[in-house]
Amino acid sequence: MPAPLDLDQLQTFAAIADCGSFTEAARRVHKTQSAVSMQIKRLEERLGHPLFVREGRRITLTPEGDELYSRSRRLLRINAEILDYFSQEDLSGTVRFGVPDDYAVRLLPKILTSFQESHPKILVEVTCQPSELLLEGIQQGRFDMIVFTQGTSHEFGEMFRTEPMHFVAGPEIRVLDCEQLPLACGSHVCCWRASAEAALNSIGRDFRVAYTSSSAMAVTSAVMAGLAVGVLPESAIMPDMRVLGVDDGFPRLPNAEIALMRASHGYGGIYDALACHILDELGNLYGEDKLVITAA
Asked: Could you report the per-residue pLDDT of 9-23, keeping only the tens digit for each?
């Protein structure tokens, strides 16, 4: 029977795949860069395949490395679950958590308050940013876990919630009859903006992007002031906003897809505790699609 793979080597491999850098991975796994390089060399020799393609400073996975990455994450997760099962220690530590500010105002306080009540020894450091910045941040090692609003299109995003998206206006609607409908939305890389533009183009509705901001609060302020129409998920709609539907001449939008992503070290213990809590509070996918998390 072949000897089992070295989990320490797999952890180092996953860290490199996460950040695309041997130097940064060495910092994350608390090893020297030469030790990291030796671990990967031994792992490649063991498996008989190169795992990374090195093009200058850029490091990407080979097809074999890509296959190993997904399997490594499963092994690391199972290892964390086993250690948790037999651990007698109280959960304590710090989780660096990123979340889009679309959910920060209405949902985040409730979620974190109940989490701190049930896990007083776990500190959660929260950063609110647009999804595209959160995805960059977790790759660069600034977060242990993020919630993001681009569904599962990004690798290892585990979708746990969907909700309707709507065109919305403020209580005093002054813009619906404009020749060019003014929109308030995120930057050009925002998936909700892309959905809104595609939907309006599909019905031939002329529009212009009048207000652009990576801050959900800034976009909401423009909408509430009656200066533009916005695009929001159902849970982010303010009480005084008006939802604009087919009867108002607006097309339907695809659902928002909310996903959870962890760094490769973000399994077990304090990470599973927070992930499980987020799922319980926000998740609405069940059956085969439900994100299954065990927490100590």
From this structure: 999 999 998 888 898
Nearest to 227 by CA among 166, 171, 175, 167: 175
pLDDT higher than threshold 60 for residue 113: yes
Amino acid 154: pLDDT: 54
For residue 186, the number of C-alpha atoms closer than 13 Å in the C-beta half-sphere is: 22
- The predicted structure's pLDDT at residue 35: 93
Q: How confident is the model at residue 152 (pLDDT cuts 50, 70, 90)?
A: low
pLDDT interval class at 285 (50, 70, 90): low
Q: Of 106, 159, 113, 154, nearest to 128 (Cα)?
A: 106
Q: Which residue intervals of the chain are DSSP H helices?
A: 7-19, 22-29, 33-47, 63-86, 108-118, 131-139, 191-202, 216-224, 269-282
Burial category of 254 from C-beta neighbours within 10 Å (exposed 0-12, middle 13-18, buried 19 and up): middle
Do 223 and 184 meet the contact criterion of CB atoms below 8 Å apart?
yes
**Would you say residue 163 has pLDDT above 50?**
yes
Question: Residues with Cβ < 8 Å from 58, sequence gap 6 or more?
Answer: 20
Give, in order, the Cα–Cα distances in Å from 10 to each of 46, 67, 140, 209: 12, 12, 19, 46
Q: Which residues, at least 6 apart from 99, have a Cβ–Cβ distance to it below 8 Å?
A: 108, 126, 127, 128, 134, 146, 147
Kindly list the distances between the CA atom of residue 281 and the CA atoms of 161, 184, 277, 284, in Å, as whole numbers in the listed order.
Answer: 10, 29, 6, 9
What is the rounded average pLDDT of the residues 173-202? 86
Q: Give just the sign of the alpha carbon dihedral 216, 217, 218, 220.
A: positive
Within 223-276, strands assigned E span 229-233, 242-244, 256-262
CA 238 to chain centre: 23
196 within 8 A of 253, measured Cβ to Cβ: yes
